[in-house]
Specification:
Blueprint (H helix, E strand, L loop, with lengths): L10 E8 L2 E9 L3 E3 L6 E3 L10 E7 L7 E10 L7 E7 L2 E7 L1 E3 L6 E10 L11 E11 L6 E9 L5 E2 L5 E6 L11 E10 L4 E5 L8 E4 L7 H7 L7 E6 L19 E10 L1
Antiparallel strand pairs: 1-2, 3-4, 5-6, 6-10, 7-8, 7-11, 9-10, 11-12, 13-14, 14-18, 15-16, 15-17, 15-19, 18-19
Length: 275
Amino acid sequence: MKKPSYRSAPICPVIETLENRTLLSGVVATGDIAAAPDRGALFVAAKPVKKAATKTTLAASAGTLDQPITFTVTVRASAAAGSPVGTANVIDHGHVIQSVTLSPAASTNAKYAVSDATYTLTQQPGGAPYYFGKHPVSAAFIPGGTFKKSTGRTTFTVSAPSYTSLPDGVEYQTVLPGAGPTIQTGQTANVFYTGFLAKNGRIFDDSVNDGGSLFPFMLGAGDVIPGFDEGTVGMSVGETRLILIPPAQGYGATPNGPIPANSTLLFVITLESIS
C-alpha cells in the first residue's frame, strides 16, 4: 500500500492514541508539516515573513545662524511592497533631534512606493544653535510593518550672513524679523542671548545655561559692552539679530573669564520685550 503524502492532502487530521482509543485532536491545513516531539503528533511550521528592502534618504536645508532648519526624510520600497510604514528618527551625533511619522507620497518612478515626512527645527532663543559650517546628520527608518530597517545620511551648511557694518567695526544682521515696537535709547531691553568666540564657535555664555531667564539692560546706559549695546539699537520686539563685535568694542586686550584677550565676539540676541 502506498504511503499517503501529507503535502498532497488538502486537510490533515492530528491523531492521538489513548488506551486503544483513537482521538481526533484537530484538523490543520497542509503546509510545512513536521512531527511534534514526545507525542508523535503533526503540526504546521510557520514560514518566516519576508521583509521588503527599503532605502532611506535625508535632505536638510539651513540658512544662517539661528534660522530654522528643515529636514525631509524619504523612505522607498518596491512598488509591490507598497509605501513603507513606520517612523524615522533624525539623529545628530547619536542624539535624536526628532522622531517623525511617515506618510505615503507620490513617486515619480513606477518601480517604487514612497513615504516621507518633514520636520522644521526652530532653535531655542538663548540656547546653543548650530554654528557656521558643515554639520552631519542621519535618519534611521523604524519599520512598523513588513519592511527592513535602513539609514540615510547627509550634511547641511550654516552659512555666514551679509552683515551691515557700523563705523566702529561692529556688524549686525537680522536673521528673524520682529513684529513689535522698536526699542529706544533709555528703555530696558529684555533679551535672550548666546555668546560665541567668533574664531571657533565656542559658546562662552548663553541664557539657557544661565538659568533660562531674560537678561535686562538699559539701552545706551553702558550696562553692557559697547558692541552689544550698539548692535541692539533699532531692534523690534520678537527680532533676532547676529552682532559681530571686534575686540575694541568688546573686552579689548583684557581676558574676561572664558574669553581670551583680543577676541572677536558673536552674539545671537532675541529681543523678547521692552520695559
